[in-house]
Amino acid sequence: MTARLIDGNALAASVRGELAERVFALKAQGITPGLAVILVGADPASAVYVRNKVAACEKVGMHSLKIEYPADVAQATVLGKISELNRDPAIHGILVQLPLPGHFDSELLLESIAPEKDVDGFHAENVGALMQGQPRFIPCTPYGVMKMLESAGVPLRGAEAVIVGRSNIVGKPMAMLLMAAGATVTVCHSQTRDLAFHTKRADIVVAAVGKPKMITGDMLKPGAVVVDVGINRLPDGKLCGDVDFDSAKEVAGAISPVPGGVGPMTITMLLANTLEAAERAAEEKQ
Fold it and tell me: pLDDT tens digits for 21-75?
């Protein structure tokens, strides 16, 4: 059996087309959705992510503002810029690219973003709203995964879902979203004693642990849906996920590739959150 592909590139293109229409409608009211992205330091991967986010904004007609600082910038300087952006009516979403240099208090910076402009969904107020089942913004990667499952017609109610990884960015919000959709969720992590025991009984596996090819085909239930959030660079320069794609595709019923899976959808849902923030701001004006 060879699994069908959950194509993130194709889905992202479709969703972005819908977003562009909504952006056009908002611009007709004199409002251009605006996203500000703050990049500190010269981490190559972060620079690529930011460049992709800015380009994606422009393609759907949004305004993007890229603010770059050297790695040794004072934290107070960045906090001052966030405060300024919080007050700027032309900016509807603010994103601080992680990771930050060691002298930064990442939590302090994320909490300084106005909750109504926190399009990453990392502010404690937004995390709490998600926990209560009334999210203002859904964190972009889990949001993208849910869209991919929806597009693939994966039944969630009553399904056994296993998430590998417990980060605040992916694992924990992913668990909340799947539970809200009616799945029974197990969250595995580095302290889990027998990972394969859990993954072998899962109807849905979401891998988000950051270890190349950690989930292999013999760890999967035949016909399982596998969504690979990981992105890792191998010694030869090639990218791979947390799932060993070649062995997994022979067992799974559906699988997302790396690259071309979750990555494009993460950026797409960032655009969706920014647009939603702009639409809410427009409603409040009226």
Answer: 999 999 999 999 999 999 999 888 888 889 999 999 999 999 999 999 999 999 9
Q: Judge whether 97 counts as a catalytic residue.
A: yes
Among residues 97, 242, 244, 249, which one is catalytic?
97
Q: Which residues contact 249 (CB under 8 A, 6 or more apart)?
A: 2, 3, 217, 255
Of 118, 120, 203, 242, catalytic:
120
Tokens 């973003």 sit on residue: 113
Burial class (CB in 10 A: 0-12, 13-18, 19+), 247: middle
Cα–Cα distance for residue pair 36/34, rounded to 1 Å: 7
72 catalytic? Reply is: no
**Residue of 53, 81, 117, 147 marked active site:** 53
The SS3 of residue 165 is coil
53 counts as catalytic:
yes
